[in-house]
Amino acid sequence: MSPACSLLSPHAPRRILPLLLPLRLSSSAVSAPALAMPRRDGTDVSYSSSSSAAAEIAEPVRKMTLASQAPPAGAGPGSEPRPAQLWVPRGYTTSAGDGPGVASASTSTSARVTEERDGVSTEKLSRLFKSAPGFEVDNSTFTEAQIRATFYPKFENEKSDQETRTRMIEMVSHGLANLEVTLKHSGSLFMYAGHHGGAYAKNSFGNVYTAVGVFVLGRLFREAWGKEAPKMQAEFNDFLEKNRVSISMELVTAVLGDHGQRPKDDYAVVTSVTELGNGKPKFYSTPDVIAFCRKWRLPTNHVWLFSTRKSATSFFAAYDAICEEGTATPVCKALDEIADIAVPGSKDHVEVQGEILEGLVARIVPRQSSGQMEEVLKNFPQAPLDGGDSDLGPSLREICAANRSDEKQQIKSLLENVGASMCPDHSDWFGNGGLDAQSRNADKSVVTKFLQAHPADYATKKLQEMIRLMKQRHFSAAFKCYWNYHKIDSLSNDNLYYKMVIHVHNDSVFRRYQQEMRRNQGLWPLYRGFFVDVNLFKANNKKAAELAKDGDALLKNINGALDSNSSAVDGLADEDSNLMVKLKFLTYKLRTFLIRNGLSTLFKDGPTAYRAYYLRQMKNWGTSANKQRELSKMLDEWAVYFRRKYGNKPLSSSTYLSEAEPFLEQYAKRSPANQALIGAAGNLVQTENFLAVLDAERDEEGDLWADHGAAPSSPVSTSVDVVPKTEGLIVFFPGIPGCAKSALCKEILNTPGGLGDDRPLHNLMGDLIKGRYWQKVADERRKKPARITLADKNAPNEEVWKQIEDMCGSTKAAAVPVVPDSEGTDSNPFSLDALAVFMFRVLQRVNHPGNLDKASPNAGYVLLMFYHLYDGKSRREFENELYERFGSLVKMPLLKPDRAPLPGAVKAILDEGISLFRMHQSRHGRAEPSKGSYAKEWAQWEQRLRVTLFGNADHLNSIQVPFDYAVKEVLEQLKTIAKGDLKTPDTGKRKFGNIMFAAVRLTPPDILGLLHKVVEKDTAVNSFLNKIRLEDNLKKAHVTLAHKQGHGVAAVASYGIHQHQEVPVSFSALYYTDKMAALEAQLGAVNDEQINSRNEWPHATLWTAPGVAAKEANVLPQLASEGKAERVPIDPPITISGVVDFY
């Protein structure tokens, strides 16, 4: 029975249905093959990797290509039947026909192909390339698209990190899933699909990044196989080609620029294996990835599985205990102790990368993954490295050092050194024949033609659907097409081959696309690292008719078979199957986010702006107050060091560790506390002589610009937002014209007593100030920094927010954003209802000082322009960023919650305006509407907008809250902030804290009540307690369970399962001296599980004299036995309740 069939079986327990979904972020991970698993009813279910029934329906469609395009016989993975083997995923064993001669066969085949290609005249290819733009799409035009390489979809939880963690623990506790944790190596994404399939970086191919990846992969084969490496490289390439498999790796090298630490060695770790032969990518489960890698002797990652509530809660507690100082050795040690299954990586992070660890990735996987992992470890032992002692040839660093002339020379040398058995074809890097790599760029019309042509199979239809939607939604992504040089010998005027790179420019696109998938569950996921082979071809009339007819019928069948069940396949209806959380360590973020990413701010804006930058980052992360103080001291010193040495000369972020690492090393040597803060320093790898020649406009993963400043999942607060009376306050308005900010400012100015204190109010109306408004605000604030400034101007973007932050720092002020309250849309913080109200208000204005009123011919356009300044941010992201930057947020009521829906005519006119605006912006940028090619359309739309809005005036008036109510609400919030009584709302994001110990928290009133019973019988105790004034001095008390330094991280984390649960604590004796006092404790049970303290003497310290540390109370029993302390028995023992918690 196939996995798909077993899911539908009436015997399959329904509650595990989501867990048989993909094991990674995608919903289509390859299930474990040929493993017999017992059912609850005692029968066995055999899980295999055979295709589902739906895939069988799709198979005829996949074959709907011209006969001339059919693959050669025997090329597919199913060319010969293979016997089932325990835990061998489909295609693990090589074809029966492959043998020792495969390497030479591959070489001869490559030579023959090269010879044939050389026979294709450069002139002919040049003519074909030039004529390709004239390729016309008609009824006989078809297209076939196949994904060639891809990585997991980028998935983000709808819940906060804390909610996600809680849900993960619940699922593990109820036996619904396991928690899987892997190391996050600090490198670049590299994908490989065979020497013909291609080598790819995150968003590019045919450059030094992919050449380095191919070289490192080839060298890994040499290390693993020794003399057999050429043969195994050829077999591996053959396997990937025949089975249409791609592998993804984390490529970690010292030649491609700095991350958190320069690796000691250049290496790669396999992170995913993907089958691409049947349309939608199928990602191997982690056990299958390990089996695959051990078959081919490729490096695997460190993996931990947590299958019980205790181990899962202990994992998160361990991370919380070590997140601010964790490095590779203690982190791996702690997780090895806690996990139910620990699989060491074949590359030791400390040996090849170093101690600085980027982070961990935790995700939900099916419950049966534990059994599958045990089977894999039993049947696929780690093979020895046959090439460990042999000469592997020049290293990556040696080759780069010897070829520093230019990028092409480095690429050429790398590919030649890796050998023909690994990379016989260099056309992706250097072109074909007389055509260089630059000529591979195809014209921009290819994408349009691809969308217009008939799809030849189901996969093509789904890819067309994806690209069409992204273009319609104006997602920030590029669809770049290049000639496929691997298909040069098959090119003709009616048969064109391309490679398409789907390049997502901004992470927000993944979030928005994910929302589209929730609405349309038949959509395929948007993958990271997305490369597609595209074939545009003409079919003769008969064949075209057959393809069109068969295609329509089969696509309908497939839609019914697959898309109707897409919620089960994609896992999107069940968010639990995609739960994942990334957990990074402060020692890594210190180097990358605080030092490297802060270089431009430090260089351009100086130390003051840099300090504001790093403090904001640490606040966003929720860094503990103690660590913030320690890091601030260190980073201020770094800023002085950097500026003194470099002055106005910028330091390249790709080599920043050349300066940062020696500084950190010297700083760490000063004290153990500094060493813990830095994590690890020293042993700097010098890269200046072998750094790859990189294009300055590409990032470390190809050609993707870094997407900085992505907001965390939810706002965080670490303290009450107090505005001292000696400081000023800036009230500003991230809104849209018509949001009533000027009217609100006028009401605030006219309010007796202002905001409730004696600071003067000052209003600056933007429409009355000529020139640079925010510079004027800054100038006025410098004159009187303690006053409250009402910045009466729309502040719609991050550039303005940054100016306000700088103003806060330079004039010693806090800032409070006031925003109209609105539900927002998927991609904008303001709903269409709000936009309609704003437009309606503006069009009722008369004689507006900014000339934006009913007399303005372009009023609707102006509001759409402001509306689109917020485009790409959901309401949650918008509010999060404001919270994180300014620590508070005031919401101005706007719309009634029980309002009627927006009338269809109003919604239609707004949708039309938004579409028109996007077309205008795409063609004319910021040009006025009257000066573009849509001038006529704009004029007509503006007139119809007025008619529509005034025709629905009753509705638009009825949905607004009364203005006086809105003013009252805003005033109350502002007064509360000014007094310092408002806490920033906490929407569930976990607050980072460096957990030091686990304890049972006790309440002082309970302790004092207990002691009152003791003093009734003992006057000496009464005199002692009165002397030390215990009632006044006892503010908190606890019984320590385990301390990180004394008992280890795992010991502290083991109490995570009981966090926030009550436990009975019995006290049997009071010990005291003139320097300290403590109660002897015996702990009870939680849910029938006894709670034991790791301390030899469990106790609650009540008091210590000045200068005496609380830990000194541990010696009280010994002092009592020596007659140096008093022991007062409590008989019978008195029991109170405490709560297990972390400190």
Automatic annotation (TrEMBL):
| Membrane-spanning ranges | none
**Superkingdom as given in the UniProt entry:** Eukaryota
Against InterPro entries, the record matches this protein to: tRNA_lig_PDEase (IPR015965), tRNA_ligase_1 (IPR038837)
- Its Gene Ontology molecular function terms? ATP binding; RNA ligase (ATP) activity
UniProt biased composition (Basic and acidic residues): 113-122
GO annotation (BP), single: tRNA splicing, via endonucleolytic cleavage and ligation
Q: Where is the composition biased (Low complexity)?
A: 102-112
Show the segment(s) annotated as Disordered: 66-122
Domain (tRNA ligase phosphodiesterase): residue spans on this chain:
983-1124
UniProt name for this protein:
tRNA ligase phosphodiesterase domain-containing protein
What does the organism's lineage look like at the top?
A: Eukaryota, Viridiplantae, Streptophyta, Embryophyta, Tracheophyta
